Amino acid sequence: MSARPTVLIIAPGDEVYRGYCLKQVAATYDVAVITQEPVTWEAGHVVDHELANPYQLDQLFAAGEAITARHTIEGVLTWNENLLVHTAQLAEHLGLRTNPAAVMENCRDKHATRQLLAIHHVPSARSGRVRDLMEATILAEDIGYPVVLKPAGQAGSVGVIRVDNSEVLARAFDFAAAGAALAGGQNSDILVEEYLDGPEISVECVTQHGHTDAVAVTRKKLDFEPYFEEVGHTVDATDPLLDEVAPIAAAAIRALGLDHGIQHVEMRLTPSGPRIIEVNGRIGGDLIGHLVRLATGLDLPRIAADLACGTTPSLERSRLRAAGVTLLYPETSGTLTHRSIDDDFADRTRWLDLVQWIGAVGDQIVLPPEGDVDIARAGLYVVTGYDVAKVEERLAETAQHVTLTVSPAARTEDAT
Q1: Of 67, 213, 354, 360, which has fewest CB within 10 angstroms of its CB?
Q2: Which of the 8 DSSP states describes residue 410?
Q3: Cα–chain-centroid distance for residue 366?
Q4: What is the SS3 assignment for 23?
Q5: Do 135 and 238 share a domain, yes or no?
Q6: Among residues 325, 330, 301, 346, which one has the least CA distance to residue 388?
Q7: Backbone phi, then psi, for 387, in 5-degree steps?
Q8: Among 194, 219, 245, residue at a domain's last position
């Protein structure tokens, strides 16, 4: 029998984006997982697993009970946004430490989040829930264009669109409604919100016993306007912005009632100051946790497991560096026919931390708005540097050594 504590992870995800999370937890803990499909890449990092659909609460409970019959589980966690509520419900069912499921529901429901932020006077966006296009039209006129339409219960940027005038509101409403109806959404509500103008960031936070430490700022790059597709991120351990935004992130976390865990708090730096977009009760996606470790030495997945198990983690930084990721999109939608990085460059470049291909040759790449991140990206790469300026320079240099070739999809009129 292992002397290490055992932690239960719900839906560890794919190896490209979340492999580092599972591997880093498994370096300290024995790990059991509940997955919808048989384990593949996870096998070398887990001591046990159960197959179940984690979106079906009865199946999740049964799988959790089966695991706990074989192991003494110290904590349960997920980094899957769409499973935060079910994971909290499972922890409650098993008598394990968790933020209350009702609290996680308020994080997942963007309308509830806005209401709580307003009650607690945390700077956010004016927002309202609408049932149809008529209500959306009235609220958009009241708020004033540009506005943002978004599903209240989805994750990432699914169904999120900026609307600059009333002429495009109907099409935007249909886009948001289609996003709300996709699998994984908590509800089908649509929000009309004030557009927050300014650079977008996220604040990576660690909360224990109701006290929040903001440990890093992630600067984001967006593209494909009027959509909000994230195409890159940078983290600098010495970013002076951290001191300014940390109190606002902590206030948002308190407003939602989160007592412990990792939070990924998104905000915009507007002319009137930083304002909250949303609070995610898990490690940020797109390898943000990996960037934080490269820049600061802080291991967010291991810290998340510590908190789930009731252990006080160390937040002492062991690095003062910077790191960045570029997410690779081709210039057009179509069939991916070639992908490569110059081998000599990759072999001799010590600051090139990672190159990962997502799309395989022959895959269809579909750019936004028709495609989401699952089918729009062809790969990614990560670099390090002594500050963010050097990281930006190295991201740009690496781009010169990457080749993506796509055979454009035939247009409908060309095929007739």
Answers
A1: 360
A2: P
A3: 20
A4: helix
A5: no
A6: 325
A7: -155, 175
A8: 194
